[in-house]
Amino acid sequence: MENPQRASAPQRRRKRRRQRKKRILRAVCLLLVTVSLVLAARCVANPEALRETKSRIDGVLQHWPTGRGKAVLVVDRGSDTVLLSQREHKRCLPASLAKLFVIEYAATFTELDDVVQVNDAALALTKPESSVAWLEPKEYYLRDLFAAMLVPSGNDAAYAVADYCGGLLDPTAQPGGERVAVFVEHLNQYLRQQGYEDTVICDPSGFDEESYTTAEDLCTVAGRLLEYDWVREIVGQLWYAAELPDGTTQSWKNTNQFLEPVSDFYNEDVVGIKTGSLPGNCHLMVLYQQHGREYLVCSLGAPSDTARYDAVADILKTIDESAE
Fold first, then answer.
1. What is the 3-state secondary structure (H, E, C) of 80-131?
2. CA of 97: how far to CAs of 5, 164, 215, 290, in Å?
3. The model's pTM
4. How far apart are CA 54 and CA 48, in angstroms?
5. Which of 111, 182, 208, 276 has the smallest set of CB atoms within 10 Å of its CB?
């Protein structure tokens, strides 16, 4: 009769070989980038464990594939633990993610129910070939203008908000460029006061080549905005319907493909937050809910629209597998 112990030894060796191969493939494909997820609670209480976990993540980062992007940062929002970071202090063009800083500042001295008279001078600042919410020169509620910035990433909405806020900051400023300039000046003062040391916003829409920010600053501003229930409600919707003061309605579709059920990238556990795009700089910020926790993912500088979704999808897959 065959010895059961001798018969199981080859099986154990094959199993070990499969496990080693699986670990190597995951490292190459960045499927182990968040190996600390199951250890998060212990890491918070044990600094030595946290250092050990970070060391393991750093080893994985050496295999970050080229073409994935310029910077990445993943944060466990529950424990405020950084799970993955690479070049998080690198200054990058913010593109439409600049709108997050605009909204954070504007929300400090306005009310969501403010009625904003969108004017032609502000709308005329919108640059050709940029994303728009197709605003008209009429009254909008400020909440809906924020939504127009976050959902379809409307640059016209960004100028409308900056124009309105600039008028509040300096009632003598003229509509359009003058009011927007006032707002931008005060915005950057606010950013410095709030500790955004690596962020300067020159254009409220982000459609420029002079502004800069970092993955770290973007995760900070996103984290602050997500403390507002109204922000979570807006960024988690595929479609947003605005009811204007005159009783008419206007709807916008979210640019985030993770929210689109017919998209190849659809993920029901993604609940926000925003895209940003300039040529050769495709950004994506995602709020992900899994295992009863929330994860904020910031990926900057992917070379194409598909590349940014592929990169973030790999990270989300790793988060899923971390509990297996």
1. CEEEEEECCCCCECCHHHHHHHHHHHHCCCCCCCCEEECCHHHHCCCCCCCC
2. 60, 20, 10, 24
3. 0.81
4. 10
5. 111
Q: Taking the mean position of all CA atoms in its chain, how far away is CA 40? A: 22
Rounded Cα–Cα distance for residues 84 and 74 (Å): 5
Beta bridge partners of residue 115, listed in sequence order = 141
Please state which of the ranges 56-65, 89-98, 188-197, 293-302 shows the lowest mean pLDDT. Answer: 56-65
Tell which residue, 157, 34, 98, 106, has the closest CA to residue 300: 98
The values of phi and psi at residue 230, to 5°, are -70, -30
> 74: number of CA atoms within 13 Å, CB side?
25
pLDDT by residue (tens digit) across 116-140?
999 999 999 999 999 999 999 999 9
212 closest CA partner among 303, 299, 91: 91
- The amino acid that residue 86 corresponds to is Q
**Which residues on neighbouring strands pair with residue 283, listed in sequence order?**
276
> Collapsing DSSP states into helix, strand and coil, what is residue 35?
coil
Of 142, 283, 286, residue with least CA distance to 211: 283
